[in-house]
Amino acid sequence: MGVLFVGDDWAEDHHDVEVQDEQGRVLRRARLPEGVDGMARLHDLLAGALPEDAGPDRVLICIETDRGPWVRALVAAGYEVCAINPKQAARHREGMALSGAKSDKADAHALADMARTRRHQLRPVAADSDIAEAVKIVARAHQTLIWERTRHTLRLRAALREYFPAALAAYQPLALTSPDTLELLARAPTPAAAADLTDTQISDVLKRHHRRGIPAKTAAIGQALRTAHLGQPDTVTAAYAATIRAAVAVLTTLNTQIDAMQGEVEAHFGQHPDAEIYLSQPGIGAILGARVLAEFGDATGRYTTAKARKNYAGTAPITRQSGKTKTVHARYIHNNRLIDALHRQASAAILNNPTIRTYYDQHRTRGLNHHAALRHTGNRLVGILHGCLKTKTPYNHTTAWPTTPQAA
C-alpha cells in the first residue's frame, strides 16, 4: 500500500488541498472551510482516496505552519504532518513554475509535490505537551508586552526630547517606565506645570513608590525641572502634552499587565516536569527558563542529538566552502525569541560562574568580539541542557565541565 501526499495551502478562513499518489497523479482537489466542518470534509476526502484497510498513518500532509487548532487536529487524527518553512515552499514552487505564476491552487500542488519528492528531508511536527504549549503562550505574551513597552518608551522619549528636554534630565535616573516617573509626567506633562511642582509633591510620589534617598532625588528632580531650557509655542506644547498623557496611560497599563503576566509565566512553568532541570542551569531563572522551554518544546525525539538542538537554537555556526575558500558564519536565520533567551542566559552565566567565564574569556583571547564569544558560550550551554534533559538530571557542574574548558 502506497502513501498519499497532501498539500494544504492555508488561509484565515479556508484551506486549498491537493492529494497525490506516489506517482504524482492528482487524486483529489478541494477548497475546505476552516473549522470543524472543513476538518470533517478533509477526513471524508482522504478516506475516499485510501483503501479500506489503510489508516491515517499512510497520509503525509505538508502545511506552512506548525501551530493552531487545524494542525493539532491533523496530528490528533493520526496523519503525519510536516510543517514547511514558507521560504522552503517558495523555493520549491519557483523550481516548478519559472513564470512566477502563483495561486492558492498552485501552492497546494507545490506542497503536495514537495511532500512526495522531498519526504526524506522533511521533519514531522512533534506534538508538545499541553503544559509546554501553555508555557509557550504565556511566555511569548509576556515577552511581547515587554517589547511593546520598549517601543512606547522610545516614542515617549522622542516626544519629550522635542518639547520638554528637562523631563529627560530629571526622570532618566528613575527610568521613564517606572511608576513614579509616569505619575509625575501625568500630573505635570508641560514644562510650566512641572516647574510648579513643589518638593513636597515630588517627595510624596517618590515615597508612594518606595524610593530610597528621597531628599537627594527630590532636590535633583526639582532643580532639573526648574532649569531654563528651549521650548515650543504654547499651542504646540499643549498638543505634545496630550500625546504624553496617552503614552503614560499606555505604559501604566503595560506595567500592570507585564507584572500580571509574569506571575502567569512562573505559575505555568512551575507545573512542567522539567522545570527543575531548567532552573538548575547556570544563568537561568523562572522567566528565562520558561522562554527556553517554550521555544525548544518538550516533544520526545524532536532533537535526536545535542547538535540538532544547537542547530535549531541558532547558536551553532555554519560553514560556507567553495573551492579553496572556507568561511564560518553565525546563523542569521533563527528563532529570535530563543536566541534572545540564550543570549541572556549566557550573559548571566559568565557573571556568576567562574568556569563559564573562563570559557568566554578564551574565545575573547582568540579575537572574537563580545557577541560572538557569548554566542559560543550559549552554544556550549545548549549542549549541556540537552544532556540534562536527555538523562532527566539537573545540572551538575563537575559533569558538565569535567576538565578545564577549552574554546571550541
From TrEMBL:
InterPro entries for this protein: Transp_IS110-like_N (IPR002525), Transpos_IS110 (IPR047650), Transposase_20 (IPR003346)
Limits of the Transposase IS110-like N-terminal domain: 6-165
Name this protein carries in UniProt: IS110 family transposase
Residues of the Transposase IS116/IS110/IS902 C-terminal domain: 279-360
PANTHER family listed in its UniProt record: PUTATIVE TRANSPOSASE FOR IS117-RELATED, TRANSPOSASE FOR INSERTION SEQUENCE ELEMENT IS1111A
Species name: Dactylosporangium salmoneum
